[in-house]
Structure formats: C-alpha cells, structure tokens
Amino acid sequence: MIRGALRPWHLTAAFTGAFDGDAARALASVFPSEYEAWEVIHLPRGAWNDPTLRERAVRWLLDWVGVAPPEIPQAVAHGRLTPDTFKEAGLDGLLRVTGSVWRAIADVFPDRFQRWELGPVPRSHWRSRAHVREAVHQALERLGISAGATATALRHGDLNANELVRLGLGSLVMGVFGGDLVALLQVAEVLPSARYVPLSRYYRQAAWQTDDRPISWRLRTDRRSLWDIGAGGEAELGRRVAALRSARADRRRRSREAEG
After folding, report:
1. Cβ-proximal residues to 149 (8 Å cutoff; 6+ apart), any chain
2. Residue 72: its pLDDT value, please?
3. In whole angstroms, what is the distance from residue 85 CA to residue 90 CA?
4. How many CB atoms lie within 10 A of CB 47?
5. 172, burial (CB in 10 Å: exposed 0-12, middle 13-18, buried 19+)
C-alpha cells in the first residue's frame, strides 16, 4: 500500500533503501509514537511469542474500545470484546497464538478474572466440585451477598438464576443444575444440607436427562427446614419444575417432528 502511494512521487527507492521496505519503521519515523506495528502491517506469528508485545497489544486494544480493566467481564458479556474485535484491530495474529479471547486477557491479567467471566465455558468445566464452589462464592461476592445471607436473598428473589447467568454461569446454573439454585448452593456448600449432595448426580442427570427422570431438584425436607417456606412455597417450586419439564418435552416433540 505504501509503495503504491509513494510511486507517483518516485520515492519507492528511498523507501526501500532507508527502511528496507518496512512500513512500520517508515511511519514511526514520520509519526513517532503515533502508530503501533499491528496497525500498519501484519505481524508474523512468531512476533506474538513476546509477552511484552502481547501485553502492550491487549492494553492498547482495551483503550481502543474504551474498556477499563475492571469492565472487561461486562465488555465480553455485551459483545464488545470478541474475536472479531481483535481482528478489526489487526490483532488476529495475537488471537491465533493465545487461542481465545479469555486466554489473551488472562495472559495479561493473570488470576484477576475467572474463565467463566470471560466467555462461555463447556459443561465439562463443572465436573470439579472445587470449580463449582469457587464460582458460586465469587458470584455471591460480585452480587454483594454474604454466605450467611444467601438463604434470605434466595427466598426474596435477590439471588436468582438470571443474575448468575448474567455473570457468566449459564452453563453451570442451567446446563448442569437445570435452574435449581438450592441444589447448586448445597453442592457449593453455601447452603446446609441434611445429607451430602453429590455433584455427580446433577452432572450425569444433565447429560442423560429423559422425560421419565426427575430433574435436578429434590431434597424437599432439607428445603423446608432450611427456608421454613411451608407447603405453599413448596407447591410453587413444584409448579416451576412442572413447567420446565413441559417446556423440555415440547422442545423434544418439535425436534422429532422436524426430523420426521
């Protein structure tokens, strides 16, 4: 591009001789500190092995899109930091080296964000009870809910599935636990349970759910003693579960009809 622009002025030889055809060097000499190399040329893959370059590029990108580091999870959730964002900024090579947006961010801000805050995580990520426990505790912290106030927040609706999904825990809340926050909080050991609640029960159930199998809500005795909600509250839970079952059955029926 630069060679073509310089040709009418008969400056291509000067460009080649002075800068060895390096457009980035040429622009830097004319506009010092004005442009980054990736804005001008396509950097070779090996250049991104330099951690200093990667950090400078990510911080430049955040400034380019107007996102402060604490706002990164919200920017990812709202589609302001996506693979396309990196490509539009000339950083597709960086993304190829790091592998994903969340790895590119974590490379610059290690231990600051959880993987689930920086994009969808596969359901297999939640095989670990420690991952579940850590995610729930951090989500409660983000929502400003102390462990001791969890049951009250749940009962009053301040803690609900939508809030956790908004934080990036959709694959855990809906994919593994089917929206059953009580079971999730008991597995995370935030809410007490009269008996041990194994994570594997819900993980397997989410993977192999059928119309005949109960979804991942149970332990009614635990819930009544924990919440003291009485029969009316239990009936409401039952209605919600029945509605969820019915919606799933309808989706399966429509899918079978479409295939037929």
Report:
1. none
2. 92
3. 9
4. 16
5. buried
List, for residues 99-145, the tens digit of each pLDDT value.
Answer: 999 999 999 999 888 888 888 788 788 888 999 999 999 999 989 99
By the 8 A CB rule, do 157 and 181 touch?
A: no
Residues 6+ apart with CB under 8 A from 96: 45, 48
Residues 101, 13: one domain? no
In this structure, the answer to whether residues 92 and 194 fall within a common structural domain is: no
The pLDDT, as a whole number, for residue 13 is 54
Q: Which long-range contacts (CB under 8 A, 24 or more apart) does 119-122 make?
A: 119/76, 119/168, 120/168, 120/170, 120/171, 121/168, 121/171, 122/171
CB atoms closer than 10 angstroms to residue 67:
18
Supply the pTM of this predicted model: 0.57
| Three-class DSSP category at 134 | helix
DSSP 245: H
Sign of CA dihedral 141, 146, 147, 153: negative
- The tally of domains found in the chain comes to 3
- The residue range of the domain holding 28 is 1-35
Rg (CA), the chain: 26
Report the Cα 27 to chain-centroid distance in Å: 38
The terminus-to-terminus CA distance of the chain in angstroms comes to 55
User: What share of the chain in percent tops pLDDT 70?
Assistant: 69
Only one residue has tokens 């001789």, namely 17
Which pLDDT value is given to residue 60?
94
